[in-house]
Write a structure and sequence with these properties.
The protein has about 250 residues and is mainly α. Helices cover about 60% and strands about 5% of the residues. The chain has a three-stranded antiparallel beta sheet.
């Protein structure tokens, strides 16, 4: 029992998935042996953990975060089927929290259940991604333009640290890290509307639109720079520039 608890402690930093037919993956331990950073949500070294039993809900949450990061980083291959027991063995936990995390990802549209086999990572085509991006723009653009006219300048200035965090994440080249920073920025912007349902729906759409595919670090840096430029225009009360930047940002939304 104690050995199981100790193994569970390592789940938080685990992002890699077990090697399966057609899938490529390696564990955090192997990367650490080579002195490379772990690929969890923020691509930063994992801090030392206390030797205590991790609650099941905590394990499930850690597994969910690790799987989301693996999806964003391309560690879970679109079209491949992954079994909960195999992933559980890799993470040092039972199949139950893995299965529960995968069920949540299924609700988010990231994977689909394959009876008696596991979960298949959804492969989104160009058209589907474009449709999702269009829906997201239809929701976020008019709200942001309305907020630009009503939110005090000092409130926009408070979002500067989030935009700067996005730039740092983009510069690292870690798509999982930037995905989290990007969503945090957009959640904060839409949160100024006071509409929690809007924030939740937009965040879900953004998570579905985000893809591990892309041009690499440069497209992340460009996207993050747009956030900073938008804040500058909002703080300057330049309504014309705000509209131009918003439409350009969502015209190439990722």
């Amino acid at each position: 029992m104690e050995q199981r608890a100790e193994r569970a402690q390592r789940v938080a930093g685990a992002v890699r998935v077990p090697a399966q037919p057609g899938a490529v993956g390696e564990g955090l331990g192997e990367r650490r042996e080579r002195g490379e950073p772990g690929e969890h949500a923020y691509c930063a070294p994992v801090a030392p953990r206390a030797r205590s039993v991790v609650r099941r809900s905590s394990v499930r949450g850690q597994i969910l975060d690790a799987l989301r990061a693996a999806l964003a980083g391309g560690e879970l291959t679109p079209g491949e089927v992954y079994s909960a027991p195999a992933l559980g063995d890799r993470f040092g936990v039972s199949a139950t929290p893995v299965r529960e995390a995968m069920q949540q990802l299924a609700l988010e549209g990231a994977v689909e259940v394959v009876p008696n086999r596991g979960f298949r990572v959804v492969a989104r085509g160009v058209r589907e991604l474009a449709e999702l991006a269009e829906v997201r723009a239809l929701i976020e653009v008019p709200v942001l333009l309305r907020l630009a006219c009503s939110v005090p300048v000092e409130r926009w200035a408070e979002l500067r640290p989030l935009a700067e965090a996005g730039v740092r994440a983009a510069s690292s080249g870690c798509r999982a890290a930037y995905g989290e920073a990007d969503r945090a920025f957009h959640r904060a912007v839409l949160g100024l509307s006071g509409n929690r349902q809007l924030v939740q729906i937009a965040d879900d759409l953004q998570r579905r639109v985000q893809s591990p595919a892309g041009d690499g670090r440069l497209d992340l840096v460009s996207d993050a720079a747009e956030h900073q430029a938008l804040l500058d225009a909002l703080i300057a009360r330049d309504d014309v520039l705000v509209r131009v930047l918003v439409e350009a940002h969502f015209g190439g939304v990722r």
